[in-house]
C-alpha cells in the first residue's frame, strides 16, 4: 500500500512538471493570423476600433490592464461573429496620455482565461500633438490639431519580450483613421 501511495505521489509530481514545462516552452508572440484587418478612428474623446476576423470568433477583447475587472467599455465577452467594434475612452481603460498622444493596447484572446498562441494584440495610437494654424477669416486664424493615427502589432503576452523597432509591423496615417491589414503589410514588406 505504501508503494502504491508513493508511486501516485511521483506520478502526480511528474504530471505537474510536464504541465509546467509545456507552459514554459510555449511562445505567444505577435501574430498576423486569425484576423483580416483592424481599423482605428481617432475621435474627439475616444478611439473607435473595428476588428474583422477571418473566421467566426468567440472569445474576449479588452484593453491591457482591464482583464481582471471585465467591465465595459474596456472588456467585451464575444459569443460569435466576425466583426466587432469597441470604443476606448481617452480618459479610461488604461489609456495613456503623454503630451496629447493617446495610446492603449487592445488584446484579442480566444480563450476566456488564458492567453495562448494565436491571440493578437495591437498598440493603438492617436496623436493630437501637432498643431496647425487654420485661417478662419483674412485677419483671424485659429489653432487646430492634425491627427496622426497608428496601429502597431504587439505581443498578446504582457510578459513577452519587446519587439525590436525594425521588426515591428505598423501602419501610420496622417489622418484620424488607419487600417492594419497584415496580408497587405506583409506583401509590401516582402517586395522591399
From TrEMBL:
Pfam family name, one: CUT_N
Segments forming domain ZP: 41-192
Chain ranges passing through the membrane: none
InterPro entries given in the database record: CUT_N (IPR056953), ZP_dom (IPR001507)
The protein's name in its UniProt record: ZP domain-containing protein
Origin: domain of life: Eukaryota
Organism annotation: Lygus hesperus
Alphabetical UniProt keywords: Signal
Endpoints of the signal sequence: 1-15
Amino acid at each position: 500500500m505504501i508503494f502504491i501511495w508513493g508511486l501516485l505521489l511521483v506520478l502526480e509530481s511528474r504530471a505537474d512538471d510536464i504541465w509546467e514545462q509545456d507552459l514554459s516552452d510555449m511562445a505567444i508572440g505577435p501574430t498576423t493570423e486569425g484576423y483580416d484587418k483592424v481599423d482605428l478612428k481617432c475621435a474627439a474623446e475616444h478611439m473607435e476600433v473595428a476588428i474583422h476576423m477571418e473566421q467566426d470568433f468567440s472569445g474576449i477583447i479588452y484593453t491591457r490592464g482591464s482583464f481582471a475587472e471585465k467591465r465595459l467599455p474596456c472588456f467585451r465577452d464575444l459569443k460569435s461573429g466576425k466583426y466587432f467594434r469597441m470604443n476606448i475612452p481617452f480618459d479610461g481603460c488604461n489609456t495613456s496620455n503623454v503630451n496629447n498622444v493617446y495610446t492603449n493596447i487592445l488584446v484579442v484572446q480566444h480563450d476566456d482565461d488564458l492567453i495562448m498562441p494565436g491571440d493578437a494584440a495591437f498598440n493603438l495610437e492617436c496623436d493630437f500633438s501637432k498643431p496647425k494654424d487654420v485661417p478662419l477669416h483674412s485677419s483671424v486664424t485659429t489653432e487646430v490639431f492634425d491627427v496622426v493615427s497608428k496601429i502597431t502589432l504587439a505581443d498578446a503576452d504582457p510578459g513577452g519580450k519587446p519587439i525590436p523597432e525594425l521588426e515591428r509591423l505598423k501602419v501610420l496615417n496622417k489622418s484620424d483613421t488607419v487600417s492594419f491589414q497584415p496580408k497587405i503589410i506583409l506583401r509590401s514588406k516582402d517586395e522591399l
